[in-house]
Amino acid sequence: MSYTDRDRFGMYKTSSSSGPGPALMGADTLIGDSVVNGQDEDLGDIKEIMLDMRSGQVAYAVLSFGGFLSVGEKLFAVPWQALHLDTVNKRFVLNVDKTRLQNAPGFDPDAWPDMSDVGWSNQIHSFYGTDPTMTSGVMAGGMVGGAGSSAGTRPAPH
Known about the structure:
The protein is α+β, with helices and mostly antiparallel strands. The chain has a domain at about 30-130: SH3 type barrels. The model is unreliable at about 135-158 (pLDDT under 50). The protein has a 6-stranded mixed beta sheet with strand order 4-3-2-1-6-5. The chain has helices spanning about 25-30, 100, 120-130, and strands at about 35, 40-50, 55-65, 75-80, 85, 90-95. The protein is globular and about 40 Å long.
């Protein structure tokens, strides 16, 4: 199921945007979108979108990875700027190897970290190779092609 399937209000039926997707998107329609890497490996799906109430920007997408039927799943706060929208396949691309993601700083669904903590934020941004001082921009830098396309991708952090 993609963001167009979850569009209860018809906001994506017509779009005058010339970008890779709608210029503005409903956050609720993105919950549940799948996330893959550049090798088209399934990395999980978006469980939540975290807003920075001070800046008014999207800070993180909470990615669910691993487990079966939510048992044993681990959650990861992925900086919004690390995600790219794949409008062809209506999903997100995160340029991280699947085995590297298994070692990413994550958390239990029942034990969320203090995402406003600067030390925690720096650790997350360092892992994904993003700048904590940058504003969100997934739609502006989104992918036009599918996961195998090089358009709009960033090199994976090492």
